[in-house]
Amino acid sequence: MKILVLVKETLATDARIKLETRKKINMVGVEYIINPYDFYAIEEAVRLKEQFGGEVILFTLGNRDSVANLKSCLAMGADRAVYLKSDLQDSRQVSEALAWAIAKEEEVDLILAGWKAVDDNNAQVPGRLSVILNLPFVNVVSDLKVDPLMSNAICQRDRDTCSERVLVSLPAIVAVQKGINEPRYPSVPGILQAKDKTIDVLIPETTPITGNVLSYQLPVSRRKCVFYDGSDPETSVELLIASLLGAKVL
Amino acid sequence: MSRGILLIVEHDEGYLKGVSEDILSFFARIKLKEKVSIKSISWGDTDISLLIREMKEWGASETLILNCKEKDWHNPYSILPVLTDLIKKEAPRLIVFGYTSFGKDVAPRLAQLLQAQLVQDILSLSFQDKVIRITRSLHGGKVIENLSYSERPLIVTVRPNVLGKSKSPVGKINVTTLAISPKEDLSYVLQDFVVTNQRKDRVPLLEAEVIIAGGRGVRNKAGFDLLEELAAILGGSVGATRAAVDNRLRPYADQIGQAGITVSPKLYFACGIHGAIQHVAGMSTSQVVVAINKDPEAPIFKAADYGVIGDLYEILPVLIKGLKEVLKL
């Protein structure tokens, strides 16, 4: 099976964000990680490779030195990576650039992705890509069973109040939800092997659209906590309930 | 020049989803400089009378109801061709979805089919001269981004509980129905429904107005049973932090935080939650926050309006008893 995995670098989630100006986020000293959801996609791809044989190729787009993060993904068992070096941020442009790069691969069976990225929360690329590449797409998948012989897969797709089991024909795009598997920590042999795995750099020629962002602001925390001493549960609960009634939230 | 606004309205057996109430009443309230047509689209099977009544209550004066089964509405391959066709004919300026599983599924694909811009999970929207101003949050809520779009059409998905809701009953609603025949698409076939451990009678976490969340301090199932009991009394839903999910006490779908879902309820209880920045990012826009934690230094108290310094296993039973009395349950 030939499986592509879309991967994205995001700001570390424990980063404290500062603004350089109203129009610019201060990126100095900030650490970057791989989008947490993407590990589930990589793990799923590697498991499928272990089960059915084949190749797992990572695709990422960014303008940073992502080598270290990509190598740790390769160490999980992916075979190679394609790195689109670009400033593109707009989801439509990113999708089109990825589609351009993906089109260079032949006989792809499956494209996996985390269903969203924790930085911009756009959650658009897999869906947009499915239209550009004309592939069936299942979103927020928490269980995946692939049948390479029948060239289809059964996806458990999580909706708000229930889940559906959907049969898709391959090739398809599947955006995974956390919990679909337990991503492995790279093993020492995996890390050593990753040193020799290739990262091909492609440069899309698109100029990024800008102009939609007016400004940024940091949310103001206006809360001042009123404390109750819980060592006297009865009294503290009584006071709390009175406060909540006063605040009209009960 | 396209001017109209299209609102995608979702419901559960005729009862509008919270975010649809938000959207309908928002657009019923705003005063636009020019006369703009605001039209809703929803789906209905046999009896749509409850749905129509609800839509009238919340301010819809014109609606198109697609005649189909629920499973066809939720099948992107059945619904997309219909929506795309309609939108190409109507040429609206703005298309508004709720940030629901339907919105997340359909909006990006629709946006690409229409070559349109899409902003997901927006916090606010306003019309200024020839542009639409939008705010949304980045990095799990640590930064608010102010955006402006003149491109048409613009598609947005709206976060539940942020636009505010107010019943704006209309006297008359103009209803058109359109029968749609679900496509037999062999590349995407719905097989069956799987019952998740999400209880059907609970409001989905994303839409809940009251959330009782548990963290590392909720050490076991008995603890989460307490949270469930509190949720039941307040008509709320139970959420969790990453710690509780990692301990396998709650499913991933319940995780609130930067790498989970972002919620904006009226009332948020943080029980045994330390208050790591990634979690706070997912609930900081809650209207009122109550934190219960043994540790007076826990950072969660900086994000709370009320804090009980105590053991949740002692406090919650007393709170449950107290609320039952006060709410006469």
Oligomer: heterodimer
Total beta strands of chain B: 18
Global geometry of chain B = globular
Q: For the largest beta sheet of chain A, what order do the strands appear in spatially? A: 11-10-9-12-8-1-6-7-13
Notes on the protein architecture:
The complex is a heterodimer of chains A (250) and B (329). Helices cover 26% and strands 32% of the residues of chain A. Chain A has helices spanning 36-52, 67-74, 91-102, 125-132, 188-194, 233-246, and strands spanning 2-7, 9-11, 18-21, 24-26, 32-34, 55-62, 80-85, 110-114, 137-147, 152-158, 163-169, 172-176, 199-202, 213-217, 226-229. In chain A, β6 (55-62), α2 and β7 form a beta-alpha-beta unit. In chain A, α3 packs across α4 (125-132). The radius of gyration of chain A is 22 Å and the shape is globular. In chain B, the strands form four sheets. Chain B has a seven-stranded parallel sheet with strand order 7-11-6-1-4-5-12, with helices on both faces. A five-stranded parallel sheet of chain B has the order 15-14-16-17-18. In chain B, β14, α6 (221-234) and β15 form a beta-alpha-beta unit. At the A-B interface, α3, α4, β9, β10 and β11 of A face α5, β7, β9, β10 and β13 of B.
